[in-house]
Structure formats: C-alpha cells, structure tokens
Automatic annotation (TrEMBL), chains A, B, C, D:
Pathway: Amino-acid biosynthesis; L-phenylalanine biosynthesis; phenylpyruvate from prephenate: step 1/1. It comes from the Bacteria. This is Prephenate dehydratase. Its EC number is 4.2.1.51. It catalyses: prephenate + H(+) = 3-phenylpyruvate + CO2 + H2O. Pfam families: PDT. InterPro entries: ACT-like_dom_sf, ACT_dom, Chor_mutase/pphenate_deHydtase, Preph_deHydtase, Preph_deHydtase_CS. It is an enzyme of class 4 (lyase). Keywords: Amino-acid biosynthesis, Aromatic amino acid biosynthesis, Lyase, Phenylalanine biosynthesis. It comes from Microterricola viridarii. GO terms for biological process: L-phenylalanine biosynthetic process.
Length: 316, 316, 316, 316
C-alpha cells in the first residue's frame, strides 16, 4: 500500500499566529511540518476555513485547556464545518509572563491588555499584585504584547513565555498563571479521509447530539460506550443553540475506530443519536497505551460474529 | 427456494404419553403432525433423546406452566443436550378433574394418586373438599388414572379433563384446579438447523450463563437486550449445579434472529457471556405482533453499518 | 436490653422427618435446639403451618440445593404465608447411598423407590450401573427406605448416608450422587419480629414482585441494589401463578438490614416494587464477612443525611 | 411563621451594568426589587463578591444563554465562592441592534466594537452585510455603545435593543442576531440559607464533582437521579482546572429539595460524589409544573420509610 493511502498527506499549515503563540509552539512539535508552508491566521474559524477551502492541507487549533475547559469556538466550528478530521494531538504547557515597554516598572502598571482567557488564568496573581488595575480585552495575547509597541493604551500585556524572543519588550514578572501545570491540548485538522493507523495508544473524537430529554438520553448514550468497555477521557456539553436545554456532546473515547469495540460503540451511537460526527481516530499526545479488559478484545468480537453467522446460515 | 430449506422437515414425533396427556393435546395442535408417526414416551428426557438419536424428528415438550413455573427438567435437559432447536410453540389450557373407578362416590375418597405438580395445583379444592386425604405421588396423571383400573391403592386420581374418553372411569368433580386460567406452554423441538422464517410475531429462546458475580453480571446481561430495544417475555434462573450461587438463565426474547436488533443483542450476549445457547427463533403461539420503537428498526441498523463502512473505507 | 429482645426465643421445632433426613441433620447443627421439643412433619407446608399456628416456635426447612436449585415449595410457601422470618442458615452436605433389604445384591435391583429430586441427582450412577431399572417416586427418601421393610414393591431405595443407623437395611452402594460437593441450604424460620443482631457476615432474604414488564423492571430492581453497593448471592425467579410471564424473585442480599446501605436499598426496593416481603436478616452459615467498597460505609450515609438535614433546616 | 423565615430577605441588588444591559432587564422583572438600592457592577465576579461581602443582599447574574451555552465565568464563580444560593430565575430575550454615532450610515462601517459573545451571535448577519469589517472586543456591549460617544475607534457597536433609550445613538440595523428565539437565563443569588417554598414548578441547581474516571462515574451520577425519577433540564461540564480530564458538572434538576424524590437523590449524590454544592431550590421562570410518574410521589417515600421503621423496631 503506498504511503499516501495509510497516512494523511499535509503540505501546508494554518495556525493562530503570529509567531510566539502557544499554537505556533504546538505546530513546532510536528516533525513533518518543518520546512513546509505555514499560514498565520487570526482565529480558529479562519484556520479551519483554510482547510475547508484547500488553502492549507491542515490547521493546528486549540481544543482543550486544563484551566479554561473546552475551547468553545473550536468545538462549535468543528460541529458546523463538515468534512474535517483530526489527525494528530499535541500538548503545550501554558505559562504566562507580564511584559511591558522597556523602562516600565511593575508599580507603573495601571491597565493590562490580555485575551480574556489568559486574563482569567492569571487572576490570583493580578488581584494580589496589582489590585486596582484595569483590563482591556485583546483578541490574542501576542497581539496584546505586540501593540504595546504600536500605540496600545495599556501599560502591560500578558503574553506566553518566550514572547521577548520576538518583540523588544521587558518581562515584569514571569510564571504569573494560577496553575503551573496548565496545559493546552491542540489538534491537527485536515480534510483527508485517511485515518491514521492504530498505534495502541489512540483516541477517537466525536460530536454527538442527544435525542429528546437530556438526562435519560445522556445515560443511554454513555451506555453505548460502557457496554463495549470503551472509556471516555473527555465529555463536554455545548448548547446546540436552537433552544435552551438542547446539547451536543464533545467526546474523546479511548481507542481507535479499527478496534472492534470502538467500531461497535460507533454503530450503537449512530443508531442511538440523531447526529454523530466522527472527528477522527489518531495517536494520543501522551502515547499512553489504552487499557481495557480482555472481554472486549478484538478476537471476542470476531468469534461472536462467526457464531452468529453460523446460526444464520447453517449450510456455511 | 425449496420448502425443505425454509422450514424444518418433521416426519415423526415423540411426546409424553399416553393418550390423554396435555402434551398429546399440544401435539394435536400441529397441523403437519396429523397422519405422521407419534411415539408416546415416559418423560421429557426420553423425548429429547429420541430427537438427538434420530428416532424422532421432533419432540413436543412442556416448557412453562403458568402455575408451577418453568419445567425444570425441560430447562435442564435443553441446557445439557447439544444441537436441539425449538421450532414451534403451543399453548394448552390446564384443567383437571377428579376421577375414580365406577361406583366410587366423593365421600369414599381417602387416598389420591396424582403427579406432584397437578396435586399442588388442586390444593385449595382438595383441602376444602377432602381435608383428611392422603397423596400417592404418580409419575404422570394419566398413569395415575389408568392404574385405578389395574390395582392402584388409591381411591381416586387427578387427571386432565377428557381422560374418560380413554379410560372407563367416572368423574367425581371437574375443574378442580386452583386457577381456571392456567395454561401450559409447550414447544416443538428438533435437530434441524433451519430457522423458521420470521413472521413479525416471533420469539427467540436462549440459555445464558453469567460471568462471575450474579448481581452485577445479571444487570450487564439484561443491558445487552435493553440497549437494543429487545424485550424479554421470560427470564428464569436455574442453578448450573456445580456450586451454590452459580446460575444459568432461561430467556425468551421478543423477536427473531433475522431482526437486526435481535442479531445485535445476540452478538453482545455472546461477547458478554461465557456460554450462550441459541434454542431457536420461532412463531409465537399467541401470534401477537412484536412491538418495538422505530429507533430499533432494521433500517437504522443497516444505515449505521453503511456509515461505519464509509468511515473505515473512504475509497468505497 | 434483656436477651429475649435481642434474639428470637425458640422452644420447639418442626422439621421434615423422620429421623435420618437431611433436615434433621440441619436441625442437629442448632446448639439451642438440643434438648428442646422436635416435631417431625411430612412436608415444608406442614412445618411452616406449625410455626404460623404456634404449635412450634421455629421450623427447619430446605431453601436451596446446589444441584436442584431453589426448593420451589419452600419459596412459594414463604411467599404466601405472612409473618414468617428466617433467623438462621445451615448447610448440609448431600450424599446418597443405595439401600436394600438384607440379602439383596446389586444385580437383583429392578425397581428403585426415591424422591424425584434425589433420583435425578443420582441419574449418572443409576444409568451406568442399573441401565434397565424402574423408578417409583416417593414423598421422601427416608420413607422410601423405611417402606422397604413394610411391603414396598421396590427392590432398593435411595437414602441419605447414615440411614442404616435408623433402619436394618444394607448399603448396596454409597456416594452415588452425581456431584460430590452437593450441599443443601436450610433455614430456620420463626414468627419472631426480633431480627438477629448483625455479625458482619449476614444475609438478608427477600421476595420481590416486579411492576409491569419483566426485562425493564428487572433491570430497575437490580439497580436498587447496585447503586447502594449491595451484592446479591441468590436471585431466582418463581412464577406468581396468576398468568404466564408474571414473576416474583427470591433474593439473598449480602448484609444486614441494620447496615445503612441495605436499609437504603430496602427503601428503594419498597418504592419500586408493588410487593416486597422481608424474610429476615441473619448470620450466614459460611460466616464469610461481607466485603463492600468503603464508599458504601455506614458513616457515609450518616454524613449525607446530616448534610441534607442542614440544608433543609438552616437554623439547626 | 414570620415571612422573613420563609423567604429570603433582599434589600439591595448588584447587577452587571450600566443601564441598558440584559442583566438590568432581568432585574426589572423582580417585583421586590422596585424601589430598592441597585448597584451596577462590571462583571459577574464583582456582583457575587458584593453578596459574599454583604454589600448587596442579592445579585442578578447570567447563567445560561441558549446560543452561547453556560456562562463559564458564572459557573466557575459559583463553584468557588462558598455560601451562595440561587433564589430566583428569570428569562430575557436576547435581541441585538447595530448602533452608531448620529450621521453614520451602514456603508461607512469598517470596525465594530462588541463583546465577543454578542459578536459571535451576530456572525451570519455581519458576514453577509459587512464582509470586510474588523472586530474590536469590548468588555460589555453597553460599554461598546457608550464609548462610541467618547473616543471609540470603532464605527459601530452591537448593543441590546433599547440602548437608544439611554444613549443618543442611531440604529443602523435591528434584530441582527442569528437566532430570533435566543434567550438568556438569569438567576438571583443571595447568601440567605432560607430556601424559597416549593411551588410545584421548581428547579434545584447543583454543582457536582465526579469520583475518578469520567465515563463510568458520570453514568453512576446520572443514575442517582434516574433511579428516583428526577429529570435534568441542564447538565454542563466544566473543567475543575487542576488537571486535564477532571470535571465538575453544573446541573439543574426538576423539582424542589422538599420533594422526597429530590431529597433522596441529593442523599445518593452526596454519598456518590466527593463534592456536591447545593445552589438552591427555587421557582422556575417558565412556571411549568414538574411532571413525574406517580411511582415517585412523596407518599410512596413516606410509606416506604414507615415500612422500614416497622421492620427495624417491631415494638413500635
């Protein structure tokens, strides 16, 4: 089998720029991306639109943040843009510093420019250190830092550690985030229908809508996984948006669509749910091998199918 | 397709005799049995052994009695004799009379000969009418009646209504059973691997063993049916017999193995259980069409499989 | 608290006699029974009726047999006779011998007298050793043995090992049962409302009817136990008897009604089921301490109740 | 009982200001708030801090938005600030208009100032009508509108319908939201321990953490509700924030803590979960009476408790 059939082919990448973002740090983790074309874009929607339109063959987007939870915009964009597939997962530590124009000292800081999420993540340090400060929301932290040099009204900006490699700014304080273990999970998204080969340490991402009432049908949906021994590492709800109380669920399940138990869970899910979006099966960033009880082994599924086939066709 | 491939071929029948038994009444309900060879045998084990050995092509056996419950001997015999299949179901009303030698009157009756099950089913009437009587257990009620004429020590016998068509006995009291709606369910058993065609009003019979602990695994077993929308009309436990607390379950599930939801439940069951015995799919005696929610329609299963196939092979 | 309030007081016992039965062997295991009045009776119903009427203060009855399963008559009698409670559990090994009148040799045996259950339990040995024999059903094995000396038409009888201590018979073969580990479980039943104190190795016996449809409601019933961490050591179905497909369930649950998790499961069960019969909490015969996860500890239940009370009455 | 004991007493209110916000519209729905002191604050955290500190006796905060889902900041603040209780619920239709300085026409608009959520909610209209526009994020829509008159760099702002009652601006387009049925759900929060009396149309809000693994324990948590017949109208996940894959769940359950089935579900939940936060029971904004099957009636719970008490204390 030629290589292009077993692995998605990627030749150009879109990512949330500019240089210095956490997203760029994630993209630097992709060996194949070295030396390829990179397009810095302004938001997740633009990155995904590049993929849909064919401008890029893949986009790196933030999917989950251990402090702030599922990145709503990403989840909603994936739910609404057909034909996208996740082909890889990457983890980037989230560490912030407070930067300012050269010459500024901490005591001078009155107003801080920062993306609302980053701002929230540094809340404890900011409230303790700069109790009377004001906040100007920015569309990105790197932009907040960059505009300090181009007419920003703010005195300082919250930026990813390393920003001073890109801009002539001064660090007023470092590691100002509330949680030193904070990590953002990024995924690489393409239009390729080719599913990365199973590695034994894989993840399957899904977006699932529930039929009618939430509580009973959420139970019913979870049973599709539990009765096949499939564990979930992520389940988040997002409103569908047409009425209060209607949700879709963003799910990461342990295992690969080529695993019998996962394939069977997908069948059960598809029959159960009015809408299942398969976002892909791909290797986990943490390379942790999936554990499951031997009762859900591939061989058990194959044997059961042969048994049923024998009952249905006694002449075989 | 020739008829012999779509329906099991039966040319000779074994049944619990002699003439006059409820089992004979069940066999009389089988149109195809008219004019064929009938073997009257002494017990269920013998009837099934006739089928296993090929002496008969089918046997009519009692499966469930609305008063006395699952006929344990039948359930155990089916569990232990490999290769048997149920191909039909028949219901016979269970009505008893007290019979005696001509000239006997009710006031003379001191000792009653009766099969223990029939004796138990007439307990209220007997205790009220003949408070001081004794009971001699018989291996069958017809035998109890017949031996009244050949040296029985008993004064009377409990027998199926209609027994006086076969033996010159007198009826002392009729309809003496505690429950006038009592019914016995019989099944016709053969060795044929051919499954009767689905009719929409079918039943699938199974014997299932549970893995390890009873309470958790019984829940897990029941979920195999409930998550596929398959209802059970019978579930009875029988000890496996090797140790206290180990059970097999005798199950009748609504639907036919050719129904997608049933086939999928059987797959789940086979994966779950250390031992599943498929006893057959066959038309229900009551001809009641199976009701199920449209979510479990065949088309839903087919569509889900096509969807999964499309994901697994994007070139297809 | 005086002793008579913490433990049921028993002064006379009924049991299935005569001397030599397994039931007598069970009663011999009860230390308090030594030197008290013992009434040998003819069947389980009579033994329980003695307790209901006050003739005896307790009755020893067979409850479960590892080979033949729940003793239907016992289960049905307990379900129908109100006010009975189980206060103790006893295990008796089930071992049989073939006995005959002195002078008989094995080769002479044509006809065997035996209770149908015992007869079934010795089936393998009998079919191998005496292939052409006939069976005369007896109401009890001891009676079968005893009547060999008083006009029985049989050549031999199946009896409990030890029968020759009571009757001048000869043993033709010993340990003829199919399963050398067979055990019968007996329970001591009284009318006392006093529940034996918890020992940490207790069992709670129940008879439960299900609402409407069997499969869904059986799941719902089992969840009452599983959501409180209560394991079941026995669950058997018995037809209620008014119509096909209607069952009651005989249940033994691990633990004592004084355990918080058991009390809460009973509450849930009582709300769920149209009919719950509490048969008692009593020490297990095997004295095996009940294992359960610490999540279901008494302290957890008490703390939750205090938390709820605090919410409901903020002034407390 | 004096009124102050049966209903929380509120004398001053904090809300997200300034005049013209949706939050103000919600507060106007509270009859008791008329004529009391209102504090306009800058964000949800400030509003809740006012309540915690005692500056206000209640705060009106946005809880759920049918388009954008759970308001993360509110959910997280409630999870982290101890002692807060929801005492009322209010719904406000979410309708937007595009406003500008007098004299501006739609064709002039290059840059739009808007809160990111409002901006997202008007995405379809904006992309279709003003394809090349830029977005400046604002901390609130009313602020965006107000600053148009005080040096804003933007040409227009997205604001709640009605904003021109407060500011001399011109409406360029109205009802520009993607979803005309969009509604925001607000709740009134106080420190009072007094729970509003049940009305039959109540809601109970909770924040619940799960033990260990997500999928199995989410099932176990949902069963605490389903086995007591309690339906959920909202279940949303929020990361706890200490590690990827750890969640708390924001739950709205149908019914009142004074309902037996809800109280019992709370007990089960408290035993199950390492952390349950009771946010209150209060009348639903939609006044829709809670439906539940009669099996979960208060009387059923009371009867079961009496039955258990009778078993536990036979002398009572």
């Amino acid at each position: 089998m030629p290589a292009e059939e077993t692995e998605p082919t990627v030749v150009s990448y879109s990512y949330l720029g500019p240089a210095g973002t956490f997203t760029e740090a994630a993209l630097k983790q992709v060996p194949d991306a070295a030396g390829k074309t990179w397009h810095a874009v302004n938001n997740v929607g633009e990155a995904l639109a590049d993929v849909v339109s064919g401008r890029s063959t893949a986009a790196m987007i933030a999917m989950e943040n251990s402090v702030e939870g599922g990145v709503s915009a990403t989840q909603d964009a994936l739910a609404k843009m057909p034909g996208l597939r996740i082909i890889g997962e990457y983890l980037v530590p989230v560490r912030f510093e407070l930067v300012a124009r050269p010459g500024t000292v901490l005591a001078d800081v009155r107003t801080i420019n920062a993306h609302p999420v980053a701002y929230a993540q540094c809340g404890s340090w900011l409230n303790a250190t700069l109790p009377g400060h004001g906040h100007i929301p920015a569309s990105s932290n790197v932009a907040a830092a960059a505009t300090l040099l181009h007419g920003s009204l703010a005195d300082a900006a919250i930026a990813p550690i390393g920003i001073t490699e890109h801009y002539p700014l001064e660090v007023l304080a470092t590691d100002i985030g509330d949680n030193n273990n904070a990590v953002t999970r990024f995924v690489l998204v393409s239009r390729s229908r080719v599913i990365p080969a199973p590695t034994g340490a894989d993840k399957t991402s899904l977006i699932v809508e529930l039929p009618d009432d939430v509580s009973g049908s959420l139970l019913g949906m979870l049973e599709q996984f539990s009765t096949r021994g499939v564990n979930l590492s992520l389940i988040e709800s997002r409103p569908i948006g047409d009425a209060l109380g209607r949700y879709r669920f963003i799910i990461d399940a342990d295992g690969h669509i080529n695993d019998e138990r996962m394939a069977d869970a997908l069948l059960g899910l598809r029959r159960f749910s009015p809408n299942v979006l398969f976002l892909g099966s791909y290797p986990r960033a943490d390379k942790q091998t999936i554990e499951f009880t031997s009762r859900y082994d591939d061989a058990i599924f194959v044997e059961a199918r042969q048994w049923l086939d024998g009952l249905l066709d006694p002449t075989a």
